Amino acid sequence: MNLSDSRAAGHGIRRVGAMEAVLETLRDAIERGEYSVGDKLPAEAGLSKEFEVSRSVVREALRALQALGLTASKTGKGTFVVSNRPVENPVFGHYSARDLLEARRHVEVPAAGYAARRHASDHLDTLTELVERMEQETDNTAWVALDSLFHITIAQASGNPVFAKVIEEIRDALARQSTLLNQLGDRRPASNVEHRLLLEAIGGRDEIAAAEAMTHHLTHVESTLSNIVGAAATAVPAADENGDS
């Protein structure tokens, strides 16, 4: 199957993000059965050539497919289709979405409250700069990196090194999840607003408002992720549920 056909053109690789276009085309092919469970996807080099994008773009698309539970990577063998539907609990690196959300609610919510009470001026300056840069940033990869630094800085501003250590530990998983949310859920505009509210609460030393702002932020992360998984699942034709072609 040539993935550079009209379906790929219909996604407008040059009009929208290249990674998103590659991801959507491959996911569509899997969900429609053009790649069946057990099939091996073309190698990165082959997909890169067919889509006329860099291998790093293809690699990010393949990671997103794996996070959704549609594919699995086998070392030295390639990427294989394992399901034509996304899983309810996507995996990002070593941690599932459920793992991350449960941990973040117990760490980042109180950390935001403590940050409002204990932050130093340097912390507030850093958070302000990060929020302003995120609001102006157009590159998704750069935005995700700034997002990670924002959450780490809040944990550091809490004055509790355990909180900071936990967020550092899950940093890569959070970045992968954030990338997926931005790619498929267009989370960046809403996240920018939520980050600004967090900054204002912390800057105002309002412990309750800061905790509430972080709770609000995490609730919307969960909601967006649920919508992504649910929308992708319902896109599969009903006949596929019984294995019909």
TrEMBL record:
PROSITE patterns: HTH_GNTR. Keywords: DNA-binding, Transcription, Transcription regulation. One of its GO terms (molecular function) is DNA binding. InterPro entries: GntR_C, TF_FadR/GntR_C, Tscrpt_reg_HTH_GntR, WH-like_DNA-bd_sf, WH_DNA-bd_sf. It holds the Pfam family FCD. Residues 16-84 form the HTH gntR-type domain. It comes from the Bacteria. PANTHER family: TRANSCRIPTIONAL REGULATOR, GNTR FAMILY, UXU OPERON TRANSCRIPTIONAL REGULATOR. This is FadR family transcriptional regulator. The lineage of its organism: Bacteria, Bacillati, Actinomycetota, Actinomycetes, Pseudonocardiales.
